[in-house]
Specification:
Residues 217-223 have low confidence and may be disordered. 37% of the residues lie in helices and 23% in strands. Helix 1 packs across helix 12. The strands form three sheets. Strands 8, 9, 10, 11, 12 and 13 form a six-stranded antiparallel sheet that branches. By secondary structure, the chain is of the alpha+beta class. The structure holds adenosine-5'-diphosphate and magnesium ion. Adenosine-5'-diphosphate (ADP) binds at residues 111, 142, 149-151, 154, 180-183, 187, 216, 264, 266, 277-278.
């Protein structure tokens, strides 16, 4: 039995999801016999941790501060062991531009892209380079903020006329954005869990997300039951499934992830090629989230999942 602080909430745009993930983790920890210290993360975080001195922190935060290495850095300073990836993996995974450069350098397929800071548009006339970018990426082009999750700020530009407003939307979430080649295909998510007995990370059954209404599933449909269909295990031929799993594991290792994570991929309908979109270092843990669904398909209950993530913490 340990004294486990559950870090949840925070001020990111994914606060509500995190509160739900955190509440569920707390219930599981209690059933597992641990003493639970819930903390809604805010300006009192360091004081709360100093006062309570937990044995370990279960980080159930998503998005800015919680998933980008900030909270992890504070936990390092305070000497409190914590679940999931360390600071450097969080920093790299939370920034799609850093993550995609690492993938491209290593030969892991990720959709072609160009990334710019706001300064490139303000001070260097980057807008004048848009026709060249559009020619290389071809329409539709996906425009997204570098550091944001849950599809917030992501727009599909279908014509040159759509690009400026898509950029404005993405820049409202981050000072850095990327323009990315669109992959027409199926959307796959591969959750990864580290082994508890020192064995390496393993991929859970693949989940396919099938949007029911929108062009792609947006923020609301992602968390509303019934608006996105999920198939687990995804219906894939053995060769594609094993390629997807090994790509996901390679990306997880490349970024230095630990404990658990989820890799989002696209499977091109036209070519059968797989492309890695991103890695989530703290995947959602709500009733409708993909990692718990994948764990269940592998015969791992939610309590079992929480126990395993806690058990993988290096102490
Ligand atoms: N290059 C792309 N081609 C096709 N669909 C994409 C592409 N990039 C993103 N999407 C769609 O947008 C969703 C969110 O994109 P993603 O890169 O995973 O960012 P996040 O989940 O952090 O918001 C994906 O799950 C997919 O449905
Ligand atoms: Mg994603």
């Amino acid at each position: 039995m340990s004294r486990v602080a559950v870090l949840k909430g925070g001020r990111s745009l994914e606060r509500q999801v995190s509160l739900r993930s955190g509440a569920r983790v707390q219930d599981a920890l209690e059933r597992l016999g641990h003493e639970v210290l819930p903390i809604d993360v805010g300006p009192g975080l360091v004081d709360a941790l100093s006062a309570q001195r937990p044995d370990v922190a279960f980080v159930a935060l998503h998005g800015r501060d919680g998933e980008d290495g900030t909270v992890q850095e504070l936990l390092e300073v305070m000497g409190i062991p914590y679940t999931g990836s360390g600071v450097s993996a969080c920093i790299r995974a939370a920034d799609k531009v850093l993550a995609k450069h690492a993938m491209r350098d290593r030969g892991i397929p990720t959709p072609d892209f160009y990334a710019f800071n706001e300064t490139a548009f303000e001070a260097l006339g980057a807008a004048q380079a848009l026709p060249a970018i559009e020619e290389r990426l071809e329409f539709p082009i996906v425009v997204k903020p570098a550091r944001q999750g849950s599809a917030l700020g992501i727009k599909f530009a279908r014509t040159p006329g759509d690009v400026p407003s898509a950029l404005v939307a993405a820049f409202s979430y981050d000072r850095k954005v990327l323009l990315e080649r669109y992959v027409h295909g199926r959307e796959l998510a591969i959750s990864i869990l580290d082994g508890t007995d020192g064995s390496g990370p393993a991929a859970l059954p693949i989940v396919e997300a099938v949007p029911k209404e929108e062009d792609f599933y947006d923020f609301e449909s992602r968390y509303e039951i019934g608006r996105t269909g999920f198939v687990c295990p995804a219906e894939l031929d053995d060769e594609t499934a094993s390629r997807a799993r090994s790509l996901a594991l390679d990306t997880y290792a490349l970024l230095g992830c630990a404990g658990f994570g989820r890799v989002d991929l696209m499977l091109s309908i036209e070519t059968g090629e797989l492309y890695v979109l991103e890695v989530n270092t703290i995947p959602g843990l709500t009733e409708t989230s993909l990692l718990p669904q994948a764990a269940e398909a592998a015969g791992i209950s939610f309590d079992g999942l929480v126990a395993r993530v806690l058990g993988s913490v290096a102490r």
